[in-house]
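Support request from a user on the community tier.

User writes: "When I paste my structure tokens into the form, the page sometimes reloads and wipes my input. The last time it worked, I copied everything first. Here is what I submitted, just in case something in the input itself triggers the reload:"
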């Protein structure tokens, strides 16, 4: 059983969370709030690492800056040690954004409120 959580918070929802949720449903056959013999799919109001949006978790493992094309490998854990980002590049999962990137993200989100 894989417990999948797709973030639908403000940042993730705006930056592609809906498309991620739709792709997860296509790949698993499970809609948000449902469970079948292999998957449980839930949504979150915020997973707590908004600056990497859109984000999802599988069995509590974080997947940041997810692109719909990454959903199948993430769900099937084809690359268990890799964290894929929206550019298709693989990054160090412990890498932090620089201060300038965080400021840009905060300014962007501030414009939305
Ligand atoms: S809104 Fe998705 S991690 Fe915060």
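"...and here is what came back when it finally went through:"
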């Amino acid at each position: 059983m894989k417990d999948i959580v797709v973030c639908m918070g403000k940042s993730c929802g705006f930056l592609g969370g809906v498309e991620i949720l739709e792709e997860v449903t296509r790949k698993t056959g499970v809609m948000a709030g449902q469970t079948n013999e292999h998957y449980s799919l839930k949504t979150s109001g915020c997973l707590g690492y908004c600056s990497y949006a859109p984000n999802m978790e599988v069995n509590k493992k974080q997947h940041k800056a997810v692109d719909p094309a990454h959903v199948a490998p993430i769900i099937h854990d084809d690359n268990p040690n890799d964290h894929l980002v929206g550019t298709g590049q693989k990054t160090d999962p412990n890498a932090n954004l620089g201060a300038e990137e965080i400021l840009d993200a905060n300014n962007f989100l501030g414009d939305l409120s």
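Agent notes: The reload is a front-end session timeout and is unrelated to the input. The pocket of FE2/S2 (inorganic) cluster is lined by residues 7, 9-12, 46-50, 53, 55 (CB under 6 Å). The two ends are 38 Å apart (CA to CA). Escalated to web team.
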